[in-house]
Amino acid sequence: MTITAGTAPAPLPDRTRVLVVGTGFAGLGTAIQLRRHGRLDFLVLERGHDVGGTWRDNTYPGCACDVPSHLYSFSFAPNPDWTRTFSPQPEIQAYLQRTARESGVLPHVRFGTELLSAHFDDASSTWTVETTRGTVVADVLVLGTGGLSEPKAPDLPGLDGFTGTTFHSATWDHHHDLTGERVAVIGTGASAIQFVPHVQRHAAHLTLFQRTAPWVLPRRDRGISRLERRLYRAVPAAQRLNRLGLYASRESWLVGFTMQTRLMAVAERIATRQLARQVPDPVLRDRLTPRFRLGCKRVLLSNAYYPALSQPNAQVVTDRIVEVTPTAVVSEAADGTRTPHEVDTIIYGTGFQVTDPPVAHRVHGRDGRTLAQVWADSGMAAHHGVTIAGFPNLFLLVGPNTGLGHNSIVYMIESQIAYVLDALEKSEQQGVAAFEPRQDVQDAWNDDLQERLQGTVWNAGGCSSWYLDRSGRNTTLWPTFTLPYRRTLASFDLEQYDTTPLRTEVAA
User: Fold this and answer.
1) What is the CATH architecture assignment of 15-150+353-501?
2) Positive or negative CA dihedral for 481, 483, 487, 492?
3) pLDDT tens digits, one per residue of 367-413
4) CA–CA separation, 441 vs 497, rounded Å?
5) H helix intervals, 132-235
6) Which SS3 state, helix, strand or coil, does residue 325 take?
7) Under CATH, which number does the domain 159-220+247-348 receive?
8) What is the pTM of this model?
9) What's the maximum distance between 2 C-alpha atoms anywhere in the chain?
């Protein structure tokens, strides 16, 4: 049952001070902090019928987080009741539901309401937002839509003519029984390695189409005992200390990712030993051996992926897919030989639209151009990864170059939320109606980011990943430790912004 089950949707107000879009960690966290700071004039739009964002939508078998549980939660809303060191999806979703309910923000949320377009009006310094349930005007627009919200399906000739069943991991068809079927899985990313073991156990035959073999490290997951949970409830400081230790441990990964990439050889040996132990067939093991530096792509964690692919009913195909017929996926070898693989179901494990987010096509700035149009040539860019020149009073959470390859994104989100709150306070104190980063300031910030990214494993690790856009520019990841980012965003500096003063009425 969803939070809103059995209730009629509340009407949209004509106007609000702050409009937040999305109820994943970013949008929900913003709403909670607005309320905690006494700001009640805000509205949250959610296209779904429950909170949770990607943790509401991704319900595929085996879905779980690859960041430790005690680190993957709000610092202001600790959860002493995690049952595993790496939380499964249902527990994360339940945590977000409970946090939303207990924080009192649900009356501010309008479920089943999708943002269709947003236009900034220069004359009034406001955003006019068209939704599926009407129009609302806001002084400030906060986009908490996230980078993992829009599934990306493969573009393959003939796919529309396939007569079997197809679905993406983010829209898993739980009514479709895979038992006894021939199933094709396209993609070998973070989602695929989690659901592939489930598919292998139920399908008559699994064909995994792999473009690039990923690095897979052991998943150090265990159950958290009742005694531990009782301790965390009784002594919250113990859980905070655990969280701090996990944070420091994850931060240390950055040394290998950015400063001494040769240090990744240690982790590579751990992954290689797991591969050798779990895949006895030398031919299959060679296919599953990565040819790039660990960390270049997202580091994956699993104890079940390799054993599943070693079963008699599993096959790994590394030849490229050239077409899909009504009943088969056709691959082509380097010598031109084509092989049809007869299948009943195709599952896409092809990730999300990260470097070209759909929301960017819906938000129009001061000159009428969309974010997507502004970013078309240079790629995604923002000041501090949050505000964008030409788009006044707009905050984009988990924006360009604020994703992480080593730590918890919730830490970055909380830093950005603090920046939003300080911006609201200082702009009001200074009588500012609209603010947008100066273009020179934004350019300098992003030039420095790109320089820092050079030589990191993400840019020079010998692979092609979703971290990079079509031009090969890394527009997704933060290049250094997270503490400097938090310190930078602790204070909103109006000197870095072009501002429009509030208009005052002149007495006749």
Assistant:
1) 3-Layer(bba) Sandwich (3.50)
2) positive
3) 999 999 999 988 899 999 999 999 999 999 999 999 998 899 999 99
4) 8
5) 192-202, 226-234
6) coil
7) 3.50.50.60
8) 0.94
9) 88
